[in-house]
Amino acid sequence: MALKIVETSLRDGHQSLMATRMTTKDILSIVPELDKAGFHALEVWGGATFDACLRFLDEDPWERLREIKKLAPNTKLQMLFRGQNILGYRHYPDDIVEKFVQKSIENGIDIIRIFDALNDIRNLKSAVDATKKYGGHCQIALSYTTSPVHTIEYYVKLAKEVEEMGADSLCIKDMAGILLPDDAFKLITQLKKNTKLPINLHGHATAGIMEATYLKAIEAGVDIIDTALSPLSGGTSQVSTESFCYILKDTKYDPKLNIDFLNQAAAKLTVIKDQAIKDGTLNPKALTANPSILEYQVPGGMLSNLMSQLREQNQMDDYEKVLKEVPIIRKDLGYPPLVTPMSQMIGTQALMNVMTQNPYKIVSKEIKEYLHGLYGKAPAKVDPMLLTKIIGDDKVITHRPADDLKPEFENLKKKYGDFAKSDEDLLSIALFGKVAISFLEKKYKQTHEPRKEVYAFSVTIGGDAS
């Protein structure tokens, strides 16, 4: 059966290599060719793209989506959705999750890929239910990592649960690029035996093994892979789309993409990439393979973030110590996968442990909230001595964290209804607070005067929404 391919250049490609700085103008210049190439889907939205539009590019992410949709009548559009975190960094109440899903589909999204950093499927339910309600394709992604608890049996069990939950397809999301070829063959083989869901493998080329991993996954029957157009492939991004077209040409897996349209799109994207290298947006180091991540299991984006923080503290000599601290903290915390927001939280804790030379002397607010259960259920038992040391006898919640959150959307309407022009504006404010308000003030050339009513979220675990 022909393999299906999701093209990621316009979301994960530039998020992984260019800090998500491709402008809407640049993106729209490439969409027509990609739309004619024959992809299963184009991943164009979600992840960090929404935040980057508002915070750095002064662009409306909703307008970007609508414009892409106009230029892609033949291909499904896909987005990445962080479960109860939506596209932000804290848990949002169910009414915000449902409204965001509804508006994403209305504005052009066909496939919503939903994941949770801890693989706690309770944190997926609200987004899954909304996607089904509003007619979208619901793809549930399981964050891939390795640990004593992250076995093939663990992923098969979760796959059965998400199939029962109503998923239309399943994704194995290897954000660090650490899934070894033979492990991929065994994992995909067992998933195909135990679920009827189409299986999508999402991997990064960071460690330099992903081409081999994809080939073994294809042998095992994977249905869909994610690739990026060659100028934004390799390194911390996905493997090259064109390369896989040639690898699979004239085999039973041949995706039969139109190479002429791919070449036309790649030529345009090369100009954008060259400019990004010239102005420093793209560091060429991000394009090289880094097999050392297979030892520490650290995603490429997290590595670059750690190096940046160490340079700021003039502590680059501690780089290896920090890397060695990461797996220790993961074990202490119950082996959470290193994906947003857990990767940032654990990376920062590793830095603090090394710099103070006294583990957990300083603990971030987010780690404390994780230990209180506010992010969901840890994959494995948290070290009991560490738990007592940090939160003492505090209550640890065992129910779904969002059950404690009160609805917010109607309160947002009351507070911002005379300023925001649409429900989409209100959702931007719900997720990114002051950042979104500042953007909308510039967009509408209107200063927002906050009303006197006090408005507060029930739980805040990151971000700066107000």
What does this structure look like?
- The chain is an alpha/beta fold and 466 residues long.
- It folds into two domains: 4-285, Alpha-Beta Barrel (TIM Barrel); 298-400, Conserved carboxylase domain (Cyclin A, domain 1, Orthogonal Bundle), CATH 1.10.472.
- The chain is 48% helix and 9% strand.
- It is built from 19 helices and eight strands.
- It has helices spanning 9-17, 24-36, 49-57, 61-71, 94-106, 125-133, 152-165, 181-194, 210-220, 241-248, 259-278, 293-296, 300-312, 319-332, 342-356, 365-371, 384-391, 409-416, 423-444; strands at 4-7, 41-46, 76-81, 111-115, 137-143, 169-174, 199-203, 224-227.
- It has an eight-stranded parallel barrel with strand order 1-2-3-4-5-6-7-8, surrounded by six helices.
- Strand 7 (199-203), helix 9 (210-220) and strand 8 form a beta-alpha-beta unit.
- The chain is globular and about 65 Å long.
- This is Oxaloacetate decarboxylase.
- Pfam families: HMGL-like (PF00682), PYC_OADA (PF02436).
- InterPro entries: Aldolase_TIM (IPR013785), Carboxylase_cons_dom (IPR003379), PCB-like (IPR055268), PYR_CT (IPR000891).
- It comes from Mariniplasma anaerobium.
- GO terms for molecular function: pyruvate carboxylase activity.
Topology:
Elements: E1 4-7, H1 9-17, H2 24-36, E2 41-46, H3 49-57, H4 61-71, E3 76-81, H5 94-106, E4 111-115, H6 125-133, E5 137-143, H7 152-165, E6 169-174, H8 181-194, E7 199-203, H9 210-220, E8 224-227, H10 241-248, H11 259-278, H12 293-296, H13 300-312, H14 319-332, H15 342-356, H16 365-371, H17 384-391, H18 409-416, H19 423-444
Parallel strand pairs: 1-2, 1-8, 2-3, 3-4, 4-5, 5-6, 6-7, 7-8
Helix pairs in contact: 2-4, 2-11, 5-6, 5-19, 7-8, 8-9, 13-15, 14-15, 18-19
